[in-house]
Amino acid sequence: MKKMMQTWLCVGMLMTMAACDGSTKVDLKENIEIEYGSDLKVEDLTQQEGIQLKEIKEYDSKKLGEQKLTVIFIDVDEKEIEQEITITVKDTQAPQITFKNDTW
Predict the structure, then answer these.
(1) What pLDDT sits at residue 17?
(2) pTM score of the predicted model
(3) pLDDT value for 6
(4) What is the mean pLDDT of residues 4-23?
(5) Torsion angle defined by CA atoms of residues 68, 50, 27 and 81, in that order, rounded to the nearest 10 degrees
(6) Which helix (H) or strand (E) holds 13?
């Protein structure tokens, strides 16, 4: 009986340590693509409820292609979750040409 209690105590300690070691992750969307020139929003990255976006490091909305970023999320318990993500910035919008009304 004593050995079983020690085993459960160890399991409980391991679970607590796992919860405290920053192993919590945000469920990210797959193949995250962002339009050229757009700001990153939490909806672009995850559909997980209760997640907020605190900080995005190294993001350049005017740099086309793949970017590896460090993002800090805040979960429902107001804990910070730092996570490495990869996004792709694409330019899919056609250029818009506007003419001035010239008077002769």
Answers:
(1) 41
(2) 0.68
(3) 54
(4) 48
(5) 50
(6) helix 2-20
Average pLDDT over residues 69-80: 96
Give which of 12, 22, 9, 6 is closest to 82, Cα–Cα: 22
**Of 14 and 97, the one with more pLDDT:** 97
Please check whether residue 52 is in contact with residue 43, taking contact to mean a CB–CB distance below 8 angstroms. no
d(CA 37, CA 43): 16
Encoding tokens for residue 103?
Answer: 């008077």
The DSSP annotation for 21-90 comes to TT-----BPSS-EEETTPPP-HHHHB--TT-EEEEEES--TTS-EEEEEEEEEE-TT--EEEEEEEEEEE
Strand order in the sheet with 52-57: 33-35, 80-90, 65-74, 52-57
Residue 8: what residue type?
W
d(C-alpha 38, C-alpha 50), whole Å: 23
Average pLDDT of span 28-55: 96
